[in-house]
Amino acid sequence: MEHGRARGWMIGWAIAQGAALWALHGLLPKGDAAVLWPLYAVVLAVPPTLQLLAAYRARRLLWVYAAALAMVFAAAAAYAGHASLGENRGRAAMALGVLLSCSWFVLLPFAEQRLASGTWARDYARLFATAWRHAFQLLLAGLFAGLFWALLFLLAGLFKVLGVSLFMDTFTSRPFVYMATPMAFSMGLSLYAAREEALAGFWRSMLQVLGWLLPLACLIAVLFLVALPVRGLAPLWKTGHATALMLGLMAWLVFLFNVAWSDGRAESQRFGPGLQRFCAAGLLAMPVYAALCAYALGLRVAQYGWSADRVWAALAVALMAVYAVGYAVAALRRGAPWMALARRVNVAAAWLAVALALLTCTPVLDPARIAVASQLARLQAQRVDVQAFDFRYLRWDAGRAGRAALEQLAQEQSHPQAAQIREQAQAAQQDTHRYARGRGTPVWTAETLRARLQPFPAEAAPDAAWLEFLLTQLRGNRLSLTCTEAAPCPVLRIDLDGDGQAEQVLLSGYASQVFARDGAQWRTVGRLQGNLRHVQGARAGQWVEQGVQTQPPRWRDLVIGGERYSVRETD
Known about the structure:
The protein is mainly alpha-helical. The chain contains 22 helices and seven strands. The protein has four domains: 2-194, no CATH class; 208-359, no CATH class; 367-430, no CATH class; 446-565, no CATH class. α11 crosses α14 (308-332). The longest helix has 38 residues, at 124-161.
């Protein structure tokens, strides 16, 4: 009887959610994002909250928490909608959705424990079980909704073969989609609640299996730290994504540790004393990784300033540092049960993650606002060349903060290169397409081109006629370069066809081309193929410095009927 009443409650909220989404869809073309996004945040967050907490629907406190959640999420969405513009609104909406979804999922177990016991996190075992139950319940509901739609489209497809399009027209109509999807999802949620005891054993068994990956992850962490002093930090920095790799390893350690450690009770521990000590050694390595991530990120910020991606990376490093230091302290503490302090670390990190996620939807930690302020400060301090400054980022990716910065730069007077800044800013303001080429591109001259090229060998200065040919190609938008003065493009002077005359090879990522002299004139003879990521950006010169050589093809070409055929070897 209780399950039946709860199911009716869930379906009722699903109907309300579907109707609200249908109504909001009509406002999409004309609605202001600062108004529309908060409405979507409330409609998408509140009904699932009330459905998952259906057991407490008679409690007044549930409505208080739902109202508080709605106000906080609406405020965050209102700021995000106001800060975004049409140019970057899609990515901003996606980022907001991820942030609010993760925050909602983290907060839900705390709210349920508060409703059930009057405390937020005192019963850690219950908190752990609730979080995993919600995860599995949502996964099952999503799978149920997906299969529901798969069967409907199968039915529609079969009848359409017979010339009956009624089902296809009905199932693809907007009212049906908006009403049926939340109802199918709510049915999946309610079916889990009715079979919770049987299904709980499944996800607990799944965690038991996954937990045995923790020793492997700890072995990887320890082995890499042992090898690091031997190889040095230079190979790590050359990857260009060292911080992401180390953050990924720490995230896996945190996830697998919590899967293996379970709810922290002594009877839940599956590892013996030997494996516990080994896993503790892996967890003790985490602060070293956190320090390396902070150091690598600090180098990039000192060299290039803040960008939105670096702000996100800094927040991730800060959160991982809390886990790293907390787990290391817990591993050093003696006594039973093993890693008992990790309970408090997990609770603190969860609240910190929610706080950081929501603060990014405010002026305090808005990544775009921080990035724009940093890059403007670098430009004003003349730490970046005007030609290398990314005006298009301000135009297309930085939202309202970028537009305000462009307006400021379009009126710039105090900078020594104020005229160039005004020209570039005004050109960026006039761009009508993200990838348009026009006045927003650098003003190419022989001097600016030479500053962005790095000849190899160093004494082989580029031919003046070749530079003039490049300028013609650039000004006619027939050539695209990713070169900057900070990361110049390597230019190889090398004989590729064995005719005794050197060709010019311009390495610019996927735009890398080969040029040859035809009498007194230069011409483009082809493009490079292969793993061109190695010759992109600052790493290109590092790869070239390691040595360049030519190698003839192993297989000659075939000419059949006047057509040439080349052999491309299989892997």
